[in-house]
Structure formats: structure tokens, C-alpha cells
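Predict the 3D structure for this chain.
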Amino acid sequence: MEFNSTPGDLMELSPLFSDDSRVAEAASIAQKLRSFAEEDVGRHGVTSAVGSANASRGLEVAVANLQEYCNELENRLLSRFDTASQRRELSTMAECAKILSQFNRGTSAMQHYVATRPMFIDVEIMNTDIQVVLGDDGPQADSSSIAEGLSIL
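Done. Predicted structure below.
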């Protein structure tokens, strides 16, 4: 019912959905509710009965609000993950990653993490890593040399 109110009105949510200490539980429940509501909206489609149309409209509002809430929650978790990463707080990073895995199987978290790592975006670092892996032989390095370079890296 909390998500079935005015579209975009997520200011007055219960502690389950607003308490940062319950974010894992909130993520799980919000994703399940969104999935059920989307499935129900898809199943009913467009109907001619006024009561069914109003119920369907209420579900559409709930789906939109749940999606907005999930997006906001995912962004908060990504931000928390970034902060923990900068502070090298591995337990917090792991907790955030576990929760983020509920959103699109963690794709956004992985993309975000890779996009912020110099080893994936800084050409100089990538060239240094290539040199470490391939050694002096460059592209002609054999598989055992490459394996040794990868283990060093």
C-alpha cells in the first residue's frame, strides 16, 4: 500500500524501507513486490471493467514507485560501496555487493566498479600491466611466460 500512493511520492515510507540498517531486507522485499506487481499488471492487461481498471492503475503506480525506490536504493548502495572502497573497508564492500547482486544480478555494481578502476581506464597503467604480463618478448611471448606474468600481476 505504501507504494500504491501518488506516483513519485516516496517520502513517507515505513522504517523497513527507510532505515539504513535494514537495507538488505528492504531491497529483497522491494524487488519481490515489484516483480509480483509487474507480473499482475502484465497478466491483467487492459480491461473494460471499471474496478479492474482502477486496480490495474493502482498496480501500475505501485510498479513505477517500486522501480523508483529500487533505483534510489541501488544508487545509495553504489555510493556506500564507493565510500567503503576508498576507505578499503572490505566487509562493507562485501555487504553492499551482496545486496547489489539483487539488482540486475549485480551488473550495475560490476560496471560501476570497473569504470572507476584505473587498471581498466588508464592507458599507462594498462601498458605497464601488459609489459608485466608479456615480458620482454612482447606479443611473441609463449604461454608459460604469459602465465608467469599473470601470476606476478
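The first helix runs from residue 15 to 18.
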